[in-house]
């Protein structure tokens, strides 16, 4: 149940005009449909293995884009700006950052092209290269390089507008240390 609740909250994070309980019901119906389909299929383990294999086709490009973006921005993000819509530096063009989308799709295509598994075997890998499954690595390399090339100049321009990404963040460590020390002192008194 916690995973269903989390998925419902994730659906709310898309900022769709839907309340919490209906979003949870959408997730529950989707989950029920998947479970019925797997029961009718009769091979739960095979369906689960295929599900995990297909997940690697999008996880590798997504992870590459996240890591490259982190290094392009030198780890500096405006957390308040991430929560603003239409007025934020992260809004881009109608809420879509096209270099990220293009890089993600290119990475997924590379994963499919370099796949050689029981789930999907591309003709390139089986007929020409005669290699094993290189889909995960190809997805990381293609998506990462594509994002670096396409987003590198845009991210560096936006960083210069926000003083190279140096965001004024309050340091809360002294407050936490003082609170912890006072609670330890109260326990010993």
UniProtKB/TrEMBL annotation:
Pfam families: Transp_cyt_pur. It is found in: Membrane. GO terms for cellular component: plasma membrane. It comes from the Bacteria. InterPro entries: Pur-cyt_permease, Pur-cyt_permease_Fcy2/21/22. The chain crosses the membrane at residues 24-45, 51-72, 92-115, 135-155. GO terms for molecular function: transmembrane transporter activity. Keywords: Membrane, Plasmid, Transmembrane, Transmembrane helix, Transport. It is a multi-pass membrane protein. PANTHER family: PURINE-CYTOSINE PERMEASE FCY2-RELATED (PTHR31806:SF1). Belongs to the purine-cytosine permease (2.A.39) family. This is Putative transporter. It comes from Acidiphilium multivorum (strain DSM 11245 / JCM 8867 / NBRC 100883 / AIU 301).
């Amino acid at each position: 149940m916690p995973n269903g609740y989390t998925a419902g909250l994730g659906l709310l994070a898309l900022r769709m005009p839907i309340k919490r309980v209906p979003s949870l019901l959408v997730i529950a119906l989707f989950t029920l449909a998947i479970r019925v389909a797997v029961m009718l299929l009769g091979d739960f383990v095979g369906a689960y293995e295929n599900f995990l294999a297909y997940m690697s086709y999008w996880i590798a490009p997504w992870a590459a884009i996240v890591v490259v973006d982190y290094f392009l921005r030198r780890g500096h993000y405006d957390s308040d700006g991430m929560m603003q819509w239409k007025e934020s530096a992260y809004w881009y063009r109608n809420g879509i950052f096209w270099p990220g989308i293009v890089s993600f799709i290119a990475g997924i295509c590379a994963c499919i092209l370099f796949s050689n598994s029981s789930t999907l075997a591309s003709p390139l890998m089986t007929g020409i290269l005669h290699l094993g499954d290189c889909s995960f690595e190809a997805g990381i390399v293609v998506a990462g390089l594509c994002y670096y090339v396409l987003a590198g100049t845009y991210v560096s321009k936006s960083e210069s507008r926000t003083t190279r990404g140096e965001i004024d963040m309050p340091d809360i460590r002294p407050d936490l240390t003082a609170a912890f020390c006072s609670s330890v002192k109260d326990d010993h008194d």
